[in-house]
Each structure stands twice: as structure tokens, then as C-alpha cells.
Amino acid sequence: xxxxxxxxxxxxxxxxxxxxxxxxxxxxxxxxxxxxxxxxxxxxxxxxxxxxxxxxxxxxxxxxxxxxxxxxxxxxxxxxxxxxxxxxxxxxxxxxxxxxxxxxxxxxxxxxxxx
Length: 115
Known about the structure:
CATH architecture: 2-Layer Sandwich
CATH superfamily: STAS domain
Oligomer: single chain
């Protein structure tokens, strides 16, 4: 898992590895929350290009970051999804509350309100 700070967009970009399960979700939750508190960033973008497996823990980590940043006026974006991940996102209902984008630049511009 990688986390990158995109200061211009006030966004933390999270790049999970191939599996977004309970173990990976816990690492993301702890790391992301620490960075969000430390930096004051208000947006999160999940780069799902490497994710090949995701379970309910993955949905939970996205929802948890949504609640965190929503409370401070931020947004969450998810981009680069495989058809499998896109189906899970759609079935979970979070597609209705997060920004869905195809590319990183689109996600960054949308979460920062630059469209």
C-alpha cells in the first residue's frame, strides 16, 4: 500500500495493493487517519488500479474515510476500478456518496472542486 499527499488538491491518495481485505483495510485506516490528522488534508482518493480482490472490509475503509472527511467538508473519490471492484462498489451503495472517476487527475479535480 502506498499513500501520497497531493498538497495542491488537499488530497491523500491511497493505493492499496492487490488485496483489500481486513488486514489491508486496518493498515489503511490507521495510516490514513494519522496522515489526515497530521497534515490537515480534507480529501481522500482511492487508486484501485492494483486491487484484484476486495471484501466488505474494503467497503468499510472507504466508508470510514468518507465519514472522516465529510465531517470537515471534504470528499472521497475512487478511481481506476476493475469491473469486479466496480461491481462491489455499486452493490454496496457507496457509489451514491463518493466521486467515481476513471483517472487520477479527474479524481483530484473533482474532490477539490476544480471542475
